[in-house]
Specification:
TIM Barrel; six-stranded parallel β-sheet; alpha/beta; about 375 residues; about 40% helix; globular; 12 helices
Length: about 375
């Protein structure tokens, strides 16, 4: 078992553009033209290739590119008892584009069962070596909580949970169970992907919640509570980091706003080892909130965008790292893209070669800054 721990000075969030062979195999499988066995064979071949590419580029962390899932978050939720889903053509409105997502709702109380993602991790783990460690990405508990209390799901959820606190309790316990399943499978590096904090920053979110008659401070308290509950009893030698995002779908975004209004909660009080933070453009605000990050956490600055193929200017990125270091020591900082390259299987608007060029740039900059 590799003893390496994330994050690394040069790192990445986790998802990669789906290769054409994988897209073609999925289309054939959905059309009933190949068997599930044939489809899975292609998936494993493409995961093997993308892991090899990550190693070739010199990264110390490997993922399966999230090649086995359609959506970065919903597929994981389907692995619990009490959760159902259906493709209806509905979705969430992003900036100028509808993110088409499966409707996902409750059919009963949420409980854990043997989770398919743990089996997926086992396939990835075989590629670990003395230079690389496997991490697995899953949606944060707060993401599942938010999914079940959005207006479209709220009335249905109340059939099974009279209060949000009851829902939080079951999600937290179910996550504890699955985290242990990952640990028992040899996983020592887990990442929680979390758009809930990014969805409540900025004036637009403040107005939206005010119009709904919801106390935003109570929302923050609940998000922190469910995430920290899931992390209770975490094995001491397991690293769990969190990636905070404002939405990433086909190169679009969901929301904008600085971290100032959530820093006292997630930066200061969430019990994760490190924070992967989106900082690739002006929508993310300044670095001042980093002063609120608790001293036990590292911060991975997402200064390289996955939403555009244009390569960032190296000197400008280094200057921004130096600026961030005014608020948090440089030795607690790392560098990565702001998000994955394909949070959903549709992917962002760049090519695979452009994707790898972005990661090469991350590594070059990190080696120049940290040596």
């Amino acid at each position: 078992m590799s003893n390496l721990k994330t994050p690394f000075r040069y790192d990445f969030v986790g998802s990669f553009l789906r290769p054409q062979a994988l897209k073609d195999a999925k289309a054939l499988f959905k059309a009933g033209k190949i068997t599930e066995e044939d489809y899975n064979k292609t998936v494993e071949e493409e995961i093997t290739k993308v892991v090899a590419k990550q190693k070739e580029l010199g990264f110390h962390v490997i993922t399966d590119g999230e090649f086995r899932r359609s959506f970065w978050h919903l597929d994981f939720m389907w692995g619990f008892e009490g959760v159902a889903h259906e493709a209806t053509g509905n979705g969430v409105q992003f900036n100028g584009e509808l993110a088409v997502l499966d409707d996902t709702w409750l059919t009963g109380k949420i409980t854990a069962k043997p989770h398919p993602f743990v089996e997926y991790f086992k396939f990835l783990k075989q590629f670990e070596d003395e230079n690389t460690v496997a991490k697995y990405t899953i949606p944060a508990p707060a993401q599942m909580f938010q999914q079940m209390i959005v207006p479209a799901n709220f009335a249905n959820t109340r059939k099974f949970y009279e209060t949000n606190d009851e829902l939080i309790e079951d999600i937290g316990k179910a996550y504890q169970d699955v985290i242990k399943q990952f640990y028992d499978a040899g996983c020592r590096n887990l990442q929680l992907d979390d758009c809930t904090w990014g969805a409540i920053v900025g004036d637009a979110a403040k107005q939206r919640y005010k119009a709904l008659g919801i106390d935003l401070e109570e929302v923050k308290t609940q998000l922190l509570k469910v995430n920290n509950l899931a992390l209770e009893n975490k094995p001491y030698d397991m690293v769990i980091n969190s990636h905070i995002c404002r939405g990433n779908y086909h190169s679009t975004y969901f929301t904008s706003g600085p971290y100032d209004t959530v820093a006292d909660y997630v930066f200061a009080k969430e019990n994760v080892n490190a924070l992967f933070l989106e900082y690739d453009d002006e929508r993310s605000g300044g670095f001042a909130p980093l002063a609120k990050v608790s001293p036990d956490k590292q911060v991975v600055l997402g200064l390289i965008t996955t939403k555009s193929p244009v390569l960032e200017d190296k000197a400008a990125v280094i200057a921004r790292i130096r600026e961030a270091a005014k608020y948090i020591p440089l030795d607690r900082l790392c560098l990565s893209p702001q998000c994955g390259f394909a949070s959903c299987e549709i992917g962002n608007k760049l090519t695979e070669d452009e994707q790898w060029a972005k990661l090469k740039l991350v590594k070059e900059i990190a080696e120049e800054v940290w040596g």
